Amino acid sequence: DAGVTQSPTHLIKTRGQQVTLRCSPKSGHDTVSWYQQALGQGPQFIFQYYEEEERQRGNFPDRFSGHQFPNYSSELNVNALLLGDSALYLCASSLGLAGGRTQYFGPGTRLTVL
Amino acid sequence: RKEVEQDPGPFNVPEGATVAFNCTYSNSASQSFFWYRQDCRKEPKLLMSVYSSGNEDGRFTAQLNRASQYISLLIRDSKLSDSATYLCVVMKYGNKLVFGAGTILRVKS
Questions:
Q1: Considering only CB atoms, which chain A residues are within 8 Å of B64?
Q2: What sign results for the dihedral spanned by CA atoms A25, B34, B27, A107?
Q3: Which of A42, A92, A97 has its CB closest to that of B94?
Q4: Which of A55, A107, B36, B106 matches a 20 to 30 Å C-alpha distance to A40?
Q5: How far apart are CA B31 and CA A90, in angstroms?
Q6: If contacts are CB pairs under 8 Å, which of residues 40-79 in chain A contact chain B?
Q7: pLDDT in tens, chain B (109 residues)
């Protein structure tokens, strides 16, 4: 049973560049949520995708955008990178939008912005 | 004020000790509650869900007090392998997870 996978594992970019992170959900899951975890902090919710639509969004600027594909995989795009975007980006998958569903996290992509 | 607040620790305890973590949340509309464990530079992993009736999983006991908006985690007979960051998590409408900043536990021999 394949778990949540993310690519790449590490990424180094410079300010102003754009980045795309990828996530494949756990087998059987159809909902993908993205979180940003800065050093020493808990993960913060960026947005959630279900049925190829953004269903919820956290307090992140429009520079953060995403997409979900028909096979339920997802991308997170960040434009005009800032130093403060350096963080661990986590993807979590679950089944549907009903309350209480367990979310399983991928290993994350560690983004460093120089 | 943060929506989920935890004591950051670190809690330094000897092997075999009992340790308790507490967490408070501010949004009374929160629907579900969890403890996740995160090892250094790894992803969070679900430790256990938390219910008002209290629930136990081996050496771990979790409790929810909705009236006080308070969540707890008790670890008995601590092992070296319990060393990690423990994240208190509430789930809001639509399965959005809100995390506390985490409590660091270090178990020493």
A1: none
A2: negative
A3: A97
A4: A55
A5: 22
A6: 40-45, 48, 55-56, 58
A7: 889 999 999 999 999 999 999 999 998 788 899 999 999 989 999 999 998 888 999 999 999 999 999 999 999 999 999 999 999 999 988 788 999 999 999 999 9
